[in-house]
Amino acid sequence: MTGDAAAPRRAPAPVRGPRTRPRAPKLPRRARVGLAAAALLGGAILPLFLASGGGLIEDATLALAYVVMALGLNIIVGFAGLLDLGYVAFFAIGAYTMGYFGSLFHINVNGGEGIHVLVSGVAAELPGIHLNFLLIVVLAIIATTIAGMLIGLPTLRLRGDYIAIVTLAFGEIVGRIAINGDEITGFGTKLTNGRQGITPVDKIDLPFLDPFTALNLRPWYWVAFVMVLLVLFVNFRLRDSRLGRAWIALREDEVAAVSMGVPAVKTKLLAYGTGAAFGGISGAFLGSYLNTVNADQFQFSFSIFILAMVILGGLGSIWGVVVGAIALSFINNYLIPDVLNNVPARIGLDFDLTQLSFGIFGFLLVIMMVLRPEGLIPERRRQLELQEGIEDLAVDGDDVQPAVRP
Amino acid sequence: MSEATSNGPLLVASGVTKQFGGLTAVDDVSFAIPRNAIVSLIGPNGAGKTTFFNILTGLYKPTLGRVSFDGRDITGGRPDKIMALGVARTFQNIRLFGTMTALENVMVGQHTRMKAGLFGSILRLPRVRREERHVRDKAAELLSFVGLRPALHDQLATNLSYGDQRRVEIARALASDPKLLLLDEPTAGMNPQESGDLTRFMERLRDELGLSILLIEHDMKVVMGVSEHVTVLDHGEKISEGDALTVRTDPQVVEAYLGKQEAERQRTEDGVG
């Protein structure tokens, strides 16, 4: 598959040799805070300038949901250094939580009367289980956190590439179960609806607000925006905490970290659990927003898509990952299908550009690795490592081992 | 401080054996570290010293034998738990967290002495805030204690000079308030002046902080100058122990270091002299 071309390796290898470009100037703190505030404010008022039911706001909302997932994956891969190639599993589990508890899927439950908890409008009349969206998000968080820790368990004794293989397998397993789940039955219900998908899914229903509709996308956008804010907040807080330092210590040198008192198992499981929870939140949102929970959404290429966002933006860099996610999401959902799609046809070639999406992502990643291996907005640490450290590395090799022994 | 709990030795290893496949790296070594003392473990390259260290700190499980620390059995315990009990170490090849600053490295060393959890950290409760400030201050204090200039505290560990990296590693180990400090060849790559400074520094740790130190060292001047007790390993076996003078004149030790012929030559020369 073309997705393989995009499969990225771990952190880019340190560049050797003389410095090739001047160090990026570090903005003063006040400027950075100002920039962040401006970006957030711009994000908050953006829908007012877009048609409330148009394609652009639709893409923007999707981009925000992807930002949430990319920030979750960033905790696992960027902070803790655990290369996870099966992140799609958490998207799937979050989305199926939405499907199970907010659709007609369990149509015979309660003698066909349905179960309704804190829902209004159409959903309150329908058979099946219908919980309030916020409750579903909580359930999705619980389910994905547990799933994240379960997938974490078998990888605890593994390092590097082997973690990637196990997580890849886990993602594949969840994807296969989603496809074949319509043949797995029990308790009078199927496990999934397979490729047909669970549809329709309840619209988000928040207290004090009317249930959302497919015609006005602004409320959806704002809900996604609030999710991004929350996840950003959690990311920043964790990064500068005891736990964040422990993640980075484990990423840098596991033996040294455990010898300094960092419990490897607990710390890694917390990374898997927290990262997975964000995938679950976003998955539940997307289940409702896309109005379908469909097995075709949960394939391997999606894991690579999210990972590419993290790497493009800058592994471990919170703002970088936000930018990377928005950029890739717009290239995938707007630029390629809406703007450039008929370019091949115009120059006489017989295919759509969308068929090449993953080839294009792979190409972008290769370009990035050559021109700016630390990502669009590099994490401070990696930037220093890749740029300031170059002189030392050229002399000592990439380890801190002493060259001299008495 | 530590004497209050009991008066026995701080650490006792009895009959410790470690086999890797068919190779016996450590063979039936028994060993004790008194409280408030500096003791050394020496031996030729490949004698099993570092393996022995790794057993004491929990990185390896011994094939046979027991290790107890401060009256508790720690045989094969998890490294982070052993660290929490009060055994801290440095590494032969410095293993700092390269992309963290010197200060952050030392803050990681205090991990086991901190309480902040996932939710406390997200909400940054007043308790967590206080703890964070305290840990940061203490880290800065420790870095100054080991002699790192304040200007370098926020430098990435990778970018520090070799000697400064050694200092940071010791500060990181001290950050957990250990009772026992294991130093694996701390003077490797140091000039005589720096080795001398380190020797005095170890004595300060013993006298001012009441620490016990176990030292693996190749520099005999350092070993003989500072240790109250020396144990010699060769091919995984303990071949000699005692005070510095006893060990230095033990023919088996001379043989292990210099080879049989040279040892005999020295012996005859001693006999003549």
Short description:
Chain A is mainly alpha-helical. Chain A contains 16 helices and four strands. Chain B has 273 residues and is α/β, with parallel strands linked by helices.
Characteristics:
heterodimer, A: 406 residues, mainly alpha, ABC transporter involved in vitamin B12 uptake, BtuC, 59% helix, 2% strand, B: Rossmann fold, 6-stranded mixed β-sheet, 4-stranded antiparallel β-sheet, 10 strands, globular
Describe the structure.
By secondary structure, chain A is mostly helical. Chain A has one domain (3-18, 29-396): ABC transporter involved in vitamin B12 uptake, BtuC, CATH 1.10.3470. Chain A has helices at 3-6, 29-45, 55-79, 88-101, 133-155, 161-180, 218-239, 242-252, 254-259, 264-289, 300-313, 318-339, 343-346, 357-371, 380-388, 390-396; strands spanning 115-117, 129-131, 185-186, 189-190. Chain A has a two-stranded parallel sheet. Chain A has a two-stranded antiparallel ribbon with strand order 3-4. Chain A is globular. The N and C termini of chain A lie far apart (55 Å). Chain B is built from eleven helices and ten strands. In chain B, the strands form two sheets. A six-stranded mixed sheet of chain B has the order 6-7-8-3-9-10, with helices on both faces. A four-stranded antiparallel sheet of chain B has the order 2-1-4-5, with helices on one face. In chain B, a hairpin with a 2-residue loop joins strand 4 (64-69) and strand 5. In chain B, helix 3 packs parallel to helix 6 (162-174). The chains are: A mainly alpha (406), B alpha/beta (273). The interface between A and B is large, with 41 and 52 residues.
